[in-house]
Amino acid sequence: MKIAVAIDGSEHAFRAAKYALTLLKEAQDAELEVISVTDYNKVEDEQLLLQNLKSLSLYQDRIVRPVVELAEKVGVKTSITLLRGNPDHEIITHLQTANVEQLVLGSRGMNIMQEVVLGSVSRSVMEQANCPVTIVK
After folding, report:
1. What is the mean pLDDT of each run of 10 residues along the chain (137 residues)?
2. Do 102 and 4 contact (CB within 8 A), yes or no?
3. Within a 10 A sphere around the Cβ of 93, how many other Cβ atoms?
4. C-alpha distance from residue 27 to each of 31, 34, 64, 105, 130 (Å)
5. What is the pTM of this model?
6. Buried b (16+ CB within 10 A) or exposed e, 50-64
C-alpha cells in the first residue's frame, strides 16, 4: 500500500503525515511518499533561496526531515518527491502518473490569507485528484 502526504512545513501538514502513518502502520509493503512543493511565487523567503541552491536544499530538507524521521520510527518506508511550482497544480499533475492509492494533506497550509475554512490548495486537490483524498484538520 502506498499513501502520499503533501507537506509544506505547517502544523496541519505534520498532523496529516502522522495520520497517514497510522493508516500504513499495519499494512504490508507500506510506503509513504512525502511530497513537498516549493512555490517560488508566493513565499518571499523562497525567492531569496533561489539565489543559493544549497540554502534551498536545506530549506526543503527542514520541511521533509521530521516526516521521514517519524516514518522511520514506526518502520514505514518513505520516498521523497520535491516539486516546484503552483502547489495544487503540481500535486495533481504528479498524482496522474504516481502509483498512489490515497493522498493525505492538511486542511490549511502556511499561507494565512488562504485559510478561510479549507485551504485553497486542499480544496483544489480534493476536487481534481484522481485518487481518494483525506484532509486532516
Report:
1. 94 96 91 89 55 70 94 96 91 96 86 54 93 95
2. yes
3. 14
4. 9, 17, 22, 19, 22
5. 0.85
6. eeeeeebeebbeebb
